[in-house]
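Researcher: Last one for today. Full complex below.
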Amino acid sequence: MSAHSITAATSRAKWVAGTLVILYAVITMIPLAWILMTGFKSPSDAISYPPKVVFEPTLEGYVNLFTTRTRQTEEFLAANPPENWADEIVRQYDMVIVGPSKFGERFLNSVIIGFGSTFLSIFLGTLAAYAFSRFRIPLADDLLFFILSTRMMPPIAVAIPIFLMYRELGLSDTHLGMILLYTAVNISLAVWLLKGFIDEIPREYEEAALIDGYTRFQAFYKVVLPQAATGIASTAIFCLIFAWNEYAFAVLLTSATAQTAPPFIPTIIGIGGLDWPAVAAGATIFLLPVMIFTILLRKHLLRGITFGAVRK
Amino acid sequence: MAEVTLKNVSKSFKSTKAVIDMDLNIPDGAFVVLLGPTGAGKTTTLRLIAGLEQPDTGEIRIGGDRVNDLTPAQRDVAMVFQQYSLYPHMTVRENLAFPLKSPILKTSPDEIERKVKAVAEVLHIPHKLDNKATELSGGEMQRVSIGRALVRDPAIYLMDEPLSSLDAKLRADLRVELKRIQAELAATLLYVTHDQIEAMTMATHVGVLDEGRLVQFGTPREVYENPRTAYVAARLGQPRINLLPAGLFGGGHPPNAVQIGLRPEHIETGTGQPADIVRIERLGDQTRLHLKFAGHDVVTLTDPHTSLRPGETVAIAPKAPLYFDADGQSIT
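Model: Here's the assembly. Have a good evening.
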């Protein structure tokens, strides 16, 4: 046996490795589990010390997240019986639901801006990456370096120029403005990642399609794109995660119209005290789209991040 | 089907001259094989005709029309690549139908179905039609990619070493099959290879390439029997031609001859000067004698049931050999 030979793991080694993996998974899951649990606690359970692991679950946090409420007199409450289960929950504080909160709107903004900028980044990134990969472009290396150089400082370093620029252009607090901004940040990542993926696709496929009677664009669309699906999926996840979670620019550039969920969720604090269950409920719902998106593309993601390591 | 002509075609990549001043005429219905080692410009020639490369100078005509400025799709050529040519995300059926569905051909579904079936039959893959292209063996993949060319009726079929990745048995079968198909369709076919057996067995015409130049073009027999240069002579024939100093067997050679070229049929055994037997290779149908003659290695054939043994000597003499001058040009 040489020093480099691969031997089967002993059962003890497997046991140790398995335990470590599970332990690591548990540790990373604790904060998430805590957020999930807090969302279903009552405000008093949420702040009780020592922290409660076993508690009586309630939807109070979710009701508070999605509604605005006002305190009412006893006569009013007696004259108007609760209309539904949600109403009933808020009655215990002598309140009535007067309308929806802004959360739904903010969440929708996040969806529009997050997925919009992801789509735009991938659309432009794929075309640019294809061009860089396949055509002789003058100064291609310099252009690629220039594109990468936009990542060489933290995006927030240019916050002030962007703030002023957006104010002049009327892009402040608009969906379009935020989509463009997140696309500008993500596009360098998209171009570089996708170029790597497209470089790996043999040119013969397109050349065969060109000879088979298709135009360059049809060959790209029918042959290259399906081959690049893996790369596109994993790049899309990275782009979405950035755009979805971005906080600093969202705070700076959005307010009444295009505000996304990240700057909104903390503002729930302060409406009649620290409403931790509502904040946790917001965070839980906010996590879902990225989680679902990632799970849907999981198969591609795994293949995507190991892509290029194995040469056929 | 159509005639294809290259006139003074040259192509360089950066500092490498891939094809130099190529004049080539592929007659209608001919099976032309371009032969040469790696880097001789065979594949570039194919790609120039297909329109995947643009010539620096010169003119390419298909069926009499100048095609220099046409896209590959407009040139109406079909090409089989050496590898990587099946679309991996499609089934075999979709792969075969892909050229027929192109905006240029726009074949009707019934017609597609019929043609795909017919080609699958010819290539013995009808049971594989609904497999994913990636689920095929190497031999099946290459048959499908040949099939993808055969479903069409193009001006010319271009094939870039289509059999090189296959095992010996399959290669021999497909060689026969290809030749049969070509004869049946009366197709014009340009075939690139470095395998002289493929060239000799299939070609109606052989073109030998050396560093981007077409050094000889003719029927396989012509090229084999009257090679224009020592380089061409060395490309055809097995065992390879023995190239020795012209005076090795004494006088009698043309005054400007530098090399004498001896194929096995140019060496008479049992008469002449003695050579030492170094090794005997018995291949079954033929037996090769590896000889040492005046310090030079000589390989020739002998009777398959020879009783000669290594260490013995055998007399050899040249018989109507080939002679080449200082530039390697044949002297006739």
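The CA atoms of residues 94 and 129 of chain B lie 8 Å apart. Chain B touches chain A through 24 residues (CB under 8 Å).
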